[in-house]
Amino acid sequence: LDLIWNIGTAALAVVVAAFVATVPWLPKITEFLIQLAVKRLPEHQRARFAEEWRGHVDEIQGDLNKLDAATGFLRAARRMTRIGKEATGQDAPILSRVVEAAAFVALVLLPISPLLPAFFGQHHNLLSIGCIIWTYGGLFLFSRKLHPVTSTTLYRPLSTTDKAGTCSQQTIVAGELILHERKLDEALHRLVDIEYSLASLLFVLPLFLFTAFVIWIESAGPVFDCQPRIGLGWRRFMLVKFRSTRADDSLSHGATPDGCPRLTRIGRIIRELQIDELPQLINVLRGEMSFVGPCPVPPSVAAELQSAQPLFADRVLVKPGILGWALINRRCGCTSMNDAWLNLSYDLYYLKHRSWLLDLLILFRTPLALCSLRSCSL
Amino acid sequence: MVPSQPRLSLQTLKVLSAILSAQRDELSGADIGRATKLASGTLYPILLRLEQAGWLESRWETDDPRKLGRPRRRFYRLTELGVRRSRAAFSELEPTFRRFSWT
Questions:
Q1: N or C, which end of chain A is more exposed by having fewer CB within 10 Å?
Q2: Can you tell me the distance from the alpha carbon of B65 to that of B75, in angstroms, rounded to the nearest whole number?
Q3: Helix axis angle, B29-36 to B40-52, nearest 10°
């Protein structure tokens, strides 16, 4: 009986295989896909591309390759309908809008999550959170132009030769990043910044006061050390830090390497633990910095890098931040030009892909990264 | 509505270089796809964009499709403007083509 079974199934398999092989399924699907794709195009292009794409498929060898090309036409048609509309801005895909809305809600709820049960009664907990999500989500879903930063010209090369007529590597990779930020996005960023700086200030307040007290005890001079940095749109602001060098030397404002004798004992410890960066929260509260963004850079370094890397100018399109993509990906601090290039490329990546989701990701990865990284103190 | 300058993405540059360096002066969409190894979904939007910007022009194959026994093909060629502009773009880019690591 087993033998009959085996022969039976084998025969069935052969028949099915023969059926599949003889009936031209793949060309039929291919033709169907082309028709589907063409329907998506505007009227005046349909006839042309229906014929052109059939010709394209005809030139390709192999049924599977034809099918692959035909699925591509679906994508092509969707993109082609958008050509010409780009200048006026376009809506982000619905999925990324949902993800963005969720990321935004998560970002907003994260610092106040311990308070939520107290705010809302126990029974209405889920309902209330649902309401918040619905509100914020709706805000995003029905708004245009979700991604705040896009590069409309994809780092289009600008001038290639400098005044001397020589062509250096750095001058060529100049580009143009254009910021499309709605007023609403700006306001929401500010709100999130205020929320985060307030929440973290409250959280670290004991440590903050203790550190200030210890610095005050240990050596004469002010508790905070204010250093000039380049902010949004090349505006200078004073970055607040805990003083880690001796007061008489801090006037020089030069970068102080770790292990330098100018460092105080407390200074060495707080630098090691990144505590000297904490007062930057005040800058965030004052609106000069953002919670997430590119590293703030001193004016002297900025001028130097700007002359070497014209793309550096794109960084001032957004506020500098305490945390950043460059910080978690690589040790911040330009020891060589190569490092500077790498940091710049991380910053540009952040600018181009800036979104709530990326901010959230940076936020979550920072504690991990901080274990192995050093401070962003140029 | 004619966009003045198409965006010079890496894919666009690939398409331009494929047409520039081709033996024949006219290529069909499938030829360009083969040369650049771009997926059809990426290729045709670029071709349409370049055509609307006046860098490319296209025409149908002149033979009768019934005699050929297959669909007509459409051939693309660079216009004067396209040749000039893409040469300029390449001469600007050439030395650091590989530095665009973050785009």
A1: N
A2: 15
A3: 120
Other C-beta atoms lying within 10 Å of the C-beta of residue A208: 19
A327 to each of A270, A333, B14, B95, how far by Cα in Å?
Answer: 18, 9, 34, 30
pLDDT of residue A147: 39
* Pairing of β A236-242 and β A290-292: unpaired
User: Would you give the distance in Å from CA A261 to the centre of its chain?
Assistant: 38
Q: Which of A182, A208, A212, A186 is nearest to A197 (CA)?
A: A208
* Residue A68 CB burial class (10 angstroms; 0-12, 13-18, ≥19): middle
Q: Which H or E element spans position A211?
A: helix A183-218
Tell me which residue of A84, A56, A91 sits closest to A72, measured CA to CA: A56
pLDDT, one tens digit per residue, over A46-93 is 888 888 898 888 888 888 888 888 888 988 888 888 775 554 444 555
- As a whole-number percent, the residues of chain A with pLDDT over 90 amount to 0
Fill in the amino acid letter for B78.
Answer: L
Q: Distance between the two ends of chain B, CA-based, in angstroms?
A: 28
| Alpha-carbon dihedral sign for residues B66, B67, B69, B74 | negative
List chain B residues with CB under 8 Å of A169: 95-96, 99
Cβ-Cβ contacts under 8 Å, A348 against chain B = 102
Which of A97-101, A166-170, B39-43 comes out lowest in average pLDDT?
A: A166-170
Q: Where are any strands of DSSP class E within chain A?
A: 149-150, 178-179, 224-230, 236-242, 290-292, 321-323
Buried b (16+ CB within 10 A) or exposed e, A98-131: ebbbbbbbbbbeebeeeeeeeebeeeeeeeeeee
- Indicate if ipTM > 0.90: no
Whether A154 and B92 lie within 8 Å, measured CB to CB: no
Residues of chain B contacting residue A59, judged by C-beta atoms under 8 Å apart? 28, 30-31, 73
